Amino acid sequence: MKKNTFIAVCFCLLVVTHSDHQISRRSFYLFFPPSAVLQFTYGLSVPFVLPRRSINITWAFQAQYNLPRNNTLLQPSTIAVRSNSLNFDLPRVTFYEYLSRILDSIGLNGKHCVYRSICEIAEIPMYKKDESTLEKIVEFLFTPSLDLTHKEELNSTVEQYQSGFTKKILRAEERGKSEGKCDEKYSKCIISLVDLMTVLYVT
């Protein structure tokens, strides 16, 4: 009888233990540790085959989102989509400044290479019949007269400096159209950026 009672007690304990195991739940957390982020990275690489060389132009994009670490971050927020701070328009002169600094950082004479590129595009325009998208972009970027003029009235010190830079840029385009010989005029630039992105046609 005692043996049967012991077996019955053990069976009940097993049932209770099994039952507790089935109805137990694991905890799931809605929040994340500090500095946790969700990140998406993607890129596009386009090869351009040129005579005796090839160039890969790569665009890389990254989106990063901070994950919530407390309940205050779950409150909806209003984002002013049309606020002035989101309107981004890079002036052409500023673009040339950035480009010249990049060229300076790799050991070239940045401003003279910008002048030479503008001069060469003006000297030998793009071939309109078979020009590629890349050539259209190059022509647009290195034709400053599309949206710059000599008649800009500027007052501040920075604007006066940009005005002098603007005059040199426009002068480079005029010299390309009238005189040519851009490699001699801007000999401090030892490489033609235009030749790296375009091919000359003999017509």
Automatic annotation (TrEMBL):
The chain crosses the membrane at residues 29-50. Keywords: Membrane, Signal, Transmembrane, Transmembrane helix. It holds the Pfam family DM4_12. Residues 1-19 form the signal peptide. This is Uncharacterized protein.
